[in-house]
Amino acid sequence: MPASPASPPQAMPCQPEQWEPSTVRLNQGDSTVLQALTGMDQQHACLILYSGEDAGQRFALAGVRMLMGRLPNCEICIDSAGVSRSHAELLLEGDRFVLHDRGSVNGTFVNGLRLDGPKALQDGDLIRLGNVTLKFYECQSLDALLHDRIYRMATVDAGTDIFTRRYLLEALEREIRRAHRTGQALSVVCMDLDHFKSVNDRFGHNGGDVVLRAAAAALKAQVRHSDILGRIGGEEFAVVLPETDLRAALELAERMRAAVAAELFLLDLTDADGARRVQHQQTASFGAAQLVPTMADARALLDAADQRLYAAKRAGRNRVAS
Is 70 exceeded by the pLDDT of residue 81? Predict the structure, then answer.
């Protein structure tokens, strides 16, 4: 039954997952996450994407009403040709999530059966929207954590804690299709750490790794949640900016440039004077480009931003070119 106005819907209670410790090997980060999960009385349910280019992605069900579809403003946004713009919705009714189809073209299915009315979900239910499959979990379980870890290993660069080149390119292709379909602006910023070879030569690869990770963190702090920041080479990065024109992309690039230049790196140096810790300041060069109709794919847009990046380097580095 739907919750009465006097009793607003609450997140569903979740009992801690039990398992035999000897059969599960977790790293420190996983253990911290598990302690946080099992130490809380209530947890959000979630959907995990089981198909398509983003298989493994998790959607936390933190709201009372969540739209599912292709529209960018959907709480569960799935950009697939078989999914309608506003395909289905999840409503938290009492202590259950109830799935409703919104008149979608290809239908909404639960465990292989097409919905002809509301359907209260149970733990482990498989949901199909068009040709996309998701799995429903009532709470944050060890199984959901395992999916998160596998998804992270496949999409996040271990050295910098931002997205991998493959993930960024796949995401850029999707955003290009969406931009062509909706007419929304799309821009890309490419960046490269200046004279990075000299960092490795002077401080060794451990020092270089410190600079890479800290520089990536400084860049990440400047982007929006909807932006996609990735590492596309050794010291090369790019960020995909949906619904962003060139002017706004250049403004972001300048903020990112200033953030990297302001970072102070403390690195270990061993030379004729012995071992000591020294300060290092790093700069980066940036190039930005906006999608135009003549650009057929992700490579064309990245190449345009990359050409401007190298123009910034030729102009003296530590600057933004467009």
Answer: yes
- Please report, in angstroms and rounded to a whole number, the separation of the first and last CA atoms in the chain: 57
How far is residue 97's CA from residue 173's CA, in Å, rounded to a whole number?
A: 33
CA distance 264 to 281: 5
Buried b (16+ CB within 10 A) or exposed e, 42-72: ebbbbbbbbebebebbbbebeeeebbbbbbe
* 320 secondary structure, DSSP code: E
Question: Percent helix, strand, coil in the chain (nearest 5)?
Answer: 35, 30, 40
Catalytic residue among 138, 235, 236, 251: 235
Residue 235 bears catalytic tag:
yes
> Which tens digit of pLDDT belongs to each residue from 125-144?
999 999 999 999 887 566 76
Give the whole-angstrom CA distance, residue 22 versus residue 1: 42
237 DSSP β-pair partners: 191, 231
pLDDT exceeds 80 at position 52: no
DSSP 122: -
* Position 203, amino acid: F
